[in-house]
Each structure stands twice: as C-alpha cells, then as structure tokens.
Amino acid sequence: MTIGMIVLVAAAILIYLGVAQRVLDRLRLTDKAALIFVAALIAGGFLPDIPLSDNVSVNIGGALVPLALAVYLIARAGTAREKSRAVVAALITSVVVYAAMKIMPLEPTYNFFLDPIYTFAIIAGVVGYLAGRSRRSAFVAGSMGLLLTDIYSRIEIAIRGGSGRMTIGGAGVFDSIIIGGILALLLAEVIGETRERVQGGPSKDRPEALRRGLSDEELAEELDREAKEGDDEDE
Predict the structure, then answer these.
(1) Taking the complete model, does pTM exceed 0.70, yes or no?
(2) Which of 56-60, 141-145, 217-221 tops mean pLDDT?
(3) 213 within a domain of the structure (yes/no)
(4) Residue 105 phi, psi (nearest 5)
C-alpha cells in the first residue's frame, strides 16, 4: 500500500471510532458521508483511468473523487465569502507549488531527505492552511492546489510537444493530494483550536473580526445568530 492509501485507511478508522467527529463537524460532513468519500478514494485508486483523448486520461481516485469532494465541501459552505476563499486559496496553493516544482529538483535521486512528491505535498498543506484559514478552505486548497498543479504540468508538456500518455491525478499525485489536503486540515484544526484556547474562545463580547480569526467563519456566524436570538428572548 502507498502512503496515501495508509493515510486513508487510518482516517477511516478514526472516523469509524468517532475520533474525528469534531473535525467532520467543522467540515459539515457526517460520518457516513466521510466514510463514503474515503471508500471512493481508496476504490478509485485501483480502478482503470478514464481516457479523455488518445494521450490524456484522468485517474478516478487521484482526480475525480478529490474534485467531487472539494465541490461538495464548497457547496456546503454557508457564505459566498467562504466559497470564494476556498477557490482562491486553491489557486494560490497551485501557483506556489508549481513555482516550487520549477526551483526544486524533481528527480528523487537528487533529494537526499524526502521524495519530491511528499515535499510538494507538505508545501501544499502549509500554503493551503495559510491561504484558506478555515478548516474547509484549507482542506480544499491543500488537495485541489496539487491537482491543479498536475493539470498545469500536463498542459505545459502538451504545449512543448511532449509525447507519451499523460494521466491527470495518477502515480504519486494521488498520494500527494491526500497528504496535502489532510495536512492542511490538521494545521487548521490544531492551530485554530490552540488559538481559540489561548484567546479564551470567540466570546460574544469580542470584536467580530477577532472572532472570525479565532474560529471557523461559519461557526462564528452561528454564534452571532445564537447571541441575537438570546437577546430577542431576553427582550
């Protein structure tokens, strides 16, 4: 099994045991929906690629399922700002990773510490978190940023007249997408949770801008609505 597959199996176990419930709540995902997507990712990695043309095909587990999950999460976002942030964060992440690919050697034999696939996944995870901020946007940015980078690379090869069959989301890209997305999500969860604890949480008497910075944007808005409803009941 590849590292990406191992990470998915570990994630499925955590979801089944209820350990990931808090994170899933922030993503607005039920346990059932999350397990379905994890199963689809694992199964898609073993299914044959779907040909788009004579030389280009798309991998189900490394491209179509991650794209479907990203669209699902964005659609579940309650505000237009959160939706646009996820898309912009994914674009920013893809540009940073693509630039890193031009600077760093791609051949594993020239990388003494870490395979470039995982190096780019880590870069995507960190940039995805910084650009996305919220849990949902960070995950979308970390995973879709890598998928977009792969698409950029395929387009570049085609423009340069490269020959041979090209697969979008295939080979090591599957692993990097999984690792990048989950790393971005973990950073958003750990750092966001730590920040909330240090600051005492997004309390009602704090400025709106600060509260949005301390927690997921949608949760801050829910707290706003609850506070207003409580004020109405007091009146």
Answers:
(1) yes
(2) 141-145
(3) no
(4) -70, 135
